[in-house]
Amino acid sequence: MDFIDFDTFTKDNSTDNDWNLPQPQPALSLPITNIENLSKKLSQFKLTKNLIIPNDSTTTITVNNDEDELMKKYAKLSINLISDEKKQEQDPENGNEKSSSNSTLSTRLSRVLNDSLNDNDQREIFSYIENNLEENELNVQDLLDTGFVGSVSRSNFKNRIESNLIKNHSKILKEYQPVIKQLKSTEGKLNKFNELNSSTESIIDSHCQNSNKFNARINELNKQQKLVLLKKQLLQSFNAKFTLTEYEEFVLTQSGEMNDEFFKVLSKLQKLNENCYILLSLDNCKLGNDILNKSNQLLNSSNDKIIKFCNKSLGNLYSLNLKSKLVTLQKCLRYLQNKYNYFQNMIDNFINSRSKFINDEFLNYCESNLEIVQQESIRFIGDLLAYVHSLIVNESETIIAIFNINENENDPIIQDIINKILMNLQKPIKLKIDHLIYSETKVLTIFQIFNLLDLYVIMFKKIKGNNLIEVLHSLISNCQDRIFSIISNKLSIIKQSNSARLELDTDLQPPNWIIEFYSDILNLLDQIKTKTILNLTTDSHEKFLDLIINSPVEIFNSHVELNKAFNKKDNLIIKFNFLDLIQSKVIPISLLSDKVIEINSQINDITEKLTTLEYVNLLKSLHLENIYNVSNMICPFSDEFFDTSIYEPIKENKLYNLESMKQIDEKIQEILPNSIIEIQQSLLKVNSPMIVNDTINQVFINFIKFIKKLNLINKEILDFEFTWSDYEMATMLGIEEVYDKEIASLPDT
Amino acid sequence: MSDKSNILKKYKIVFLGDQSVGKTSLITRFMYDTFDETYAATIGIDFLSKTMYLEEGKTIRLQLWDTAGQERFRSLIPSYIRDSHVAVICYDITNKKSFLNLDKWIKDVKLERGDDVIIVLVGNKSDLANDKRQVTIEDVESLHLKIGSKFFIETSTKANHNVKLLFKKIAQSLPEFNNEGTENENNTSNNNHNNPETIDITIDKNAPNPQTLNTCC
Ligand SMILES: Nc1nc2c(ncn2[C@@H]2O[C@H](COP(=O)(O)OP(=O)(O)OP(=O)(O)O)[C@@H](O)[C@H]2O)c(=O)[nH]1
Ligand SMILES: [Mg+2]
């Protein structure tokens, strides 16, 4: 087509690839647009090629008849349209006629002119055309000419318009040129910039990639780091819990000192060792085992070190005079305290060496006091017990000073140590004192030893931690035994002794041995203030009394029985004298009051026998013996009841007659006045005058009572009376007062 | 502070004197700061020990041997005098006889220890001085000069007079004490904490009467 289409124009540029400028959208707001629209609207408006040679031939016209006709039709229409317009202007009523003929054209035109173009645009277009017509000296008529002229002029016109249009376009385009230039230069810049941009982008991209990689790596590393940190923490806490630093190991193993640090590390090691059981419970217990072994090894060596130190310090207590040593030792002890075996072992060692030391001290002490032993056993034992007393308290104090690790002086551990150390003193103490007890022969000395021991029992009970009281008790019982055995030995010697037997002679005095025997014992008994002798049990107390009272009596009696030189009376008198002596000795001793009663009854027994003996002798001398026996057989005279008739049977007896009674009466008168002297003479060797007196009185009273009864019987049966009445006889015998009392006490006859 | 612990060092002090002069009361006052009116005769010999804290952090462990004054225990006593460093011989200022008997006690001490002993004369029951005094200060002073005792002092365990001072002076007169009788302060506080027997020694409120107190060294 002849029209330069704006679209096509623009499309041409697309060939240039570098020109990537986006197509202006919408199209530049140029007046051309209208033209374009117009041209579009006129697109149907085709001029045939034939129009270029309008006047050539008719044939061509005929050939192109159709075309011509069509052109004609259009032209007509256009003209009609114009004339219609003119008519309308001039004569609007005439227009109607032509309009029908031009209707085709008008529809076309209206299609072109109406619609989208607004009035302004249309006006502009037409005014433009109008102006151009004038400028180009064109005639509207020509243009409207349907023939060739018209076609040419229209084509001209169209050309002109087109050239004009081109001019305008180029003019406008010229205006754009600097911009284009600028744009071009800008384009270069932009290209560069783009290049730069893309290169930057690519760099950034690559950087991005890099940094992504980097980030990923960092993330990974972070994770790793966290893990590592966790691991580190684990290891650190593991380290803290399960390992010792080299320095700590050094402190435990190498450094000589056992200071606070040592114990701190040690307690750490202990904990570590204990914690190993956690490790051992893991699936893999190798680590636990390793650490356990290592820590055990360290612990053992540390323990060894501590024990070595303890043993060394405890082996030389003088070293503990250094406060720091003592403090360290106590730390060691406190540490070892819970390790029973170690502790016990060490304590046992200490107890052994300490008790050996104490024993040596004790023996040294005894050694250096040997002279005293020989001189005075009491003093020696007194000193010895005082020495032991202070040994106990000193040892207790020392042990407490060393072992008071739990701030409790009464700690059973301490008590145990003290007890065990002192325990070994038991033997030597017992040996020493026992030796003295058994070599001592004086009861009194042993008694003093006994008292001393008894006192020390009280004193030792007041001080803590000693089991020596047991020793004292056993020594005390040895003293008791010893006293028993000394006494019984003495007695058995006396029993066997000939000289003791020979001591008994006709002077009928108690033997000397009994005096000697009691001199010691009575001294002892005198000092006793306890309920029982030597604090013996009541049983033993009784045995002891038997030993000191009954046994000598038995021995003496056996000696007397063996002595053939004694008659019955001598026998009684010497026994009496013996008992009398004992009684006089024991009466002041309240502990022996029971024994006094016992002796007293024995004495009474003997006195009675003696009385009977003397009485019988008196009756014999008066030839009354038979009569007495016979009548006594009928009815004992001792019976309170008396009636002469009871004695009636006496008549049967040949000896009982008046004659014999007369003889007896003579005898009485002959003998009785001297009888008092006779009896006194016979009882001369009885040591107690009071008893002699009593005996004589009793003999005479018995006699007179008998005589009185016999007199009554005689009177009844023989009608005979003795020359002297009972009262006269009593007066003669000097017992009238006693007899009075006796008679008074008798029931009336 | 010295690094001496003195665990093996024992300072033995024996209390002597007639029955009922107040030996046990003195020790009881010192140990427990108490006093008992009722008399309970001592049986045999009692032992008590106490750590004493003196100025300058010095401490000293005293072993106190309380003897019985009753005649029947008399024979026990020489054995205890034998290894004592100090003999505290007591009498009752209201009982002349107890003072006269000091000779006997001093003789016992000299017999066992010769002059190698610190003798201290203590006249107890000074609270009764106004009404019942039978022994004057002059009496004891002349005895003190005669026998060469370390010092003499009148005390009252009832009124708690001069008791602490007595023990403080005893401690100070121990010959070893001045050289080595000190202990670590650490230990001091330690012991103080765990030892109920300890007291701190400060001079009695009742300042000693210069007349009743005489130190001869
Ligand atoms: N008024 C007074 N009475 C005292 C004083 N000291 C002790 N007593 C009393 O005197 C009596 C005897 O006191 P103890 O301390 O038992 O005497 P002791 O010297 O130990 O006696 P023995 O143990 O028998 O030797 C007790 O009743 C005490 O109360 C004192 O300072 N003043
Ligand atoms: Mg007492």
UniProtKB/TrEMBL annotation, chain A:
Biological processes annotated in GO: intra-Golgi vesicle-mediated transport; protein transport
> How does the record say this protein sits in the membrane?
Peripheral membrane protein
Which residues belong to any copy of the Conserved oligomeric complex COG6 N-terminal domain?
153-254
Q: Where is this region: Disordered?
A: 84-107
Where is the Conserved Oligomeric Golgi complex subunit 6 C-terminal domain positioned along the sequence? 286-733
Transmembrane helix among the record's keywords?
no
Q: Which UniProt keywords apply?
A: Golgi apparatus, Membrane, Protein transport, Transport
Q: What is its main location?
A: Golgi
Name one cellular component (GO) term.
Answer: Golgi membrane
Functionally, this protein is described as follows: Acts as component of the peripheral membrane COG complex that is involved in intra-Golgi protein trafficking. COG is located at the cis-Golgi, and regulates tethering of retrograde intra-Golgi vesicles and possibly a number of other membrane trafficking events.
Subunit notes for this chain? Component of the conserved oligomeric Golgi complex.
The protein, known as: Conserved oligomeric Golgi complex subunit 6
* Organism, as annotated: Candida verbasci
Q: What is the lineage of its organism?
A: Eukaryota, Fungi, Dikarya, Ascomycota, Saccharomycotina
TrEMBL record, chain B:
Q: How does it sit in the membrane?
A: Lipid-anchor
Region listing for Disordered, in residue ranges = 177-217
Q: What is its main location?
A: membrane
Which keywords are on file for this protein? GTP-binding, Lipoprotein, Nucleotide-binding, Prenylation
Query: What Gene Ontology terms describe where this protein resides (cellular component)?
Result: cytosol; Golgi apparatus
Molecular-function GO term, any one: GTPase activity
Q: Where is the composition biased (Polar residues)?
A: 208-217
Similarity section: Belongs to the small GTPase superfamily. Rab family.
UniProt cross-references to PROSITE patterns, sorted A to Z: RAB, RAS, RHO
Q: Which residues lie in Low complexity bias regions?
A: 177-198
According to the UniProt entry, where is the signal peptide? none
* Record-given protein name: GTP-binding protein ryh1
Provide the protein's localization: Endomembrane system
InterPro entries recorded for this chain? Answer: P-loop_NTPase (IPR027417), Rab (IPR050227), Small_GTP-bd (IPR005225), Small_GTPase (IPR001806)
CDD domains per UniProt: Rab6
Species the sequence originates in: Candida verbasci
